[in-house]
Every structure is written in C-alpha cells, then in structure tokens.
Amino acid sequence: MRPLTTSLTLLCALGLATGAHAFEPAGEDIAYEIGDDTFEGYFASGGDMARGTVLIVHDWNGLDDYERQRADMLSELGYDAFAVDLFGQGNRPETTEARQEATNALYSDRERMRELTLGGLAEARDRGAAPTTLVMGYCFGGTVALEIARSGLADDVVGYTSFHGGLGTPEDQSWPEDTPPLLIAHGGADTAVPMADVATLVEELEDAELTYTVEIYSGAPHAFSVFDTERYQERADKASWAAFTDFLEEIL
User: Fold this and answer.
1) 198-205: average pLDDT
2) Nearest one of 137, 121, 23 to 69, comparing CA atoms
3) DSSP β-bridge partners for residue 185
4) Which among 38, 42, 76, 197 could bridge 83 via Cys, Cβ 3.0 to 4.6 Å?
C-alpha cells in the first residue's frame, strides 16, 4: 500500500473540519482496556432482538459525534452498533499533524491496528452485542475495515464495508478465499483515492474470486458522507447509506 499521501491528508482535513450534526446520543460511551491502555468506544443497542452488530471504525480524527450518530441510526434499524476507538481515551486529534501522527502510527503497525480493532469487537460482544457482525468504517476507518477483512482473524464476521476509504493492499498481504462479501462506497470525484485504486482492488477481488460490490457516486469527493462539511454530498450520502442498509438486510 502507498503511504498516506499529502493529498489524502489535506482532503480528510477539509472533509472533517466541522464535525457531525448536533444531536442527542441515544447510546452510551464505554471505557475499556486493551492491554495496559484505556479506550473509549460508543455502544448503541438495537434492542433485545437485535438483528446483528455493526462495528464502526472512525476516521482519522478519532471517535466523535459523527460515528455516534451513525451508530444511533443503525440501532434505530434494529442493529447493535459499537463504534470502536483505535486512538485511546481522550486522544481525539484536532490538527492535521496530530491526525497524521495517529493514523500513520497504525498504518506502520498493522498488527497493532488489527489488535485494537478486534479488541473493540471483543468488548462489544462482552457488553452483550449480537455476535454476528459486519465491520465498516469511514476514510481511515474504511482502510481498517479492509485490513481486518484481509487478515481473516475476525470470528463470526459476515461482511465488510468501506465508505470513501483507502483501498490499497500492502505488498505482503492478499485476500483469503473465504473473505465475506464486501461493499465499497466510493466517490467518482475522489482525488485522494483515485479510480486507479478502485480498478486495482477490483482486479484483486476478481483474482481471489470474492463476492463484492463497488458503488461509484458521480461528482462525489473524498469524505462525501460526512455531515456539515464542505465535502458533504447529500445525494451520494443517501445513495450509499441505502446501499449499505440493503447490504445489511442481505447478510445480517
């Protein structure tokens, strides 16, 4: 995989500058431990008869109200939703430099990236989340979702989704033949993750004979689904969310 580029860094900064819609969280913040470190995720219950769990991986600014709102939206649809924290409790970087540092630390240590994501999944299940799970993420989180898919380490995960995430595969990785179905939501005007990366990913998935869907939204820039930002595109956001909920209906 190419290192995190300056263009991707700056576009993420533009796309996430103002945060998510103001709202009243319906779920609860959850502090948990992985090794000697403390993290703080967010859990929104889908009720006693939850249809499954969606594990949400945050973007490079850390878990905030954007992921909380998405979790609440999923809980209203009858899914348990747990937004995992990969940066650590209280670490919600606000500057471009701090966000680069936080994400690059995990890009350069994929084992740690997988450990923290799977640790969050274990915490969700310990808190009573339904075991059957889909892993999804936004931007950096979309990259993480595909990392977990390639690892083959997650138990009882039935699908993966990336919203405007990085799509490159590290040179030492490949796609297991039993990888669950994938949904890739990508902006046609995304200059941070160009269409060449989409084409390369499709070639890899075809070679591995995997089940996947790639949705391309015309005119949609990087971070097109992030509310209240200059890069938000309502049409692409609504269409990608509909594709995602259809995907959930199919596999959970």
Assistant:
1) 98
2) 23
3) 163, 215
4) 42
